[in-house]
Amino acid sequence: MQRNKRKYTWVMPVCMVMYGVFLGAAVAWFMDDWGLYEADTGTMILCIIHFVIAIVGTYIVQTMIHEVGHMICGLLSGYHVCSFRIFSFAWVKKEKICFQRMSVAGTSGQCLMVPPELIDGKMPFVLYNLGGVIANLLTAVLLGIYYWYFVYDFDEAVIICSMVITGMFLVLQNGIPFPMQMIDNDACNTVSLLRNPEAVRSFWVQLKVNEWSIKGVRLKDMLAEWFAVPCDETATDSMTTTVGVLACNRLMDEKRFEEAEQWMQHILTSDCEMTGLQRGLVLCNCIYLEAIAANRQERLHALLTAQQKRFMRKASTNLSVMRTEYALACRENKQKADAIQTRFEAYAKKCLYLADVQSERELIEIAEQKAIGKEPEL
């Protein structure tokens, strides 16, 4: 079950080390440029604190610029806005624009859009996927020029310099193609789409599923043709594997548990590339199915590896994770299960995807019925 491990995960640490060197050099140059090395210790400490606060604040601003870049470039490519999220603040286009609070593990923000129709299996995707990187790069370059020629005030210099530094950080983080721990970055997704025509269809399906989920349509009620699973030979990237994962989720929604488990075992033991988020959620489904059926402790122990436990802690607000935790607890600890269900309902109120909430509630009810020895109606 450990075959489809992520490749090239070493690139991220190397890039972060390179950025750390760049950041240290930029701060050293800034302090020399403003004569801070000649200042007394108290003044220098205050300036460093000032700089750290500015870095945090401008990171938030550059994250907003990044997502706006995706949105503008998506609109230019014929997409339509579906949802826009910065950290846990989300705006969703339903009958009207609604504000909600939610978060997604592994992301600081997200601009999800409705794609144009496929024409001969093709659609524009480069500008939309790289729009955030383009926006951060333009901002950093233009502000760098402005800083060099027009900035003479120290406070303004700190803010402008921080904008350049955080902008370049997001350019490196999203503009160099490499898989991150939970998801692939923008450049990695773009490379996958350029290399693999099947990935383009998978990307389109993923965005259409998101659109219809926000409208309240459950996976089991969506077009079956969307979930036609690509063969293993074409599933060379996580973008293509997405359709396979969605097919598993659809089988879970249809309560076709045996088929779902067979397909999930195939994905987990094949050479299909998966993100950490995809793998973690597929394993949650496997754990849930084992917990409500045979409930073999040795099998659960094998599934609940240290890596999977870390994932479930990081994604603790995900409804599928909470549903899995409930299934594990309801046989042995009713009080703990009730606490998990209360937390589930609190987060369900914030969830963008009402259809998913309904599906997960049904799975919780099945776990509850199984725990007391009743056979649920499927």
UniProtKB/TrEMBL annotation:
<keyword id="KW-0472">Membrane</keyword>
<keyword id="KW-0812">Transmembrane</keyword>
<protein>
    <recommendedName>
        <fullName>Peptidase M50 domain-containing protein</fullName>
    </recommendedName>
</protein>
<feature type="transmembrane region" description="Helical">
    <location>
        <begin position="125"/>
        <end position="148"/>
    </location>
</feature>
<keyword id="KW-1133">Transmembrane helix</keyword>
<feature type="transmembrane region" description="Helical">
    <location>
        <begin position="43"/>
        <end position="61"/>
    </location>
</feature>
<feature type="transmembrane region" description="Helical">
    <location>
        <begin position="154"/>
        <end position="172"/>
    </location>
</feature>
<feature type="transmembrane region" description="Helical">
    <location>
        <begin position="12"/>
        <end position="31"/>
    </location>
</feature>
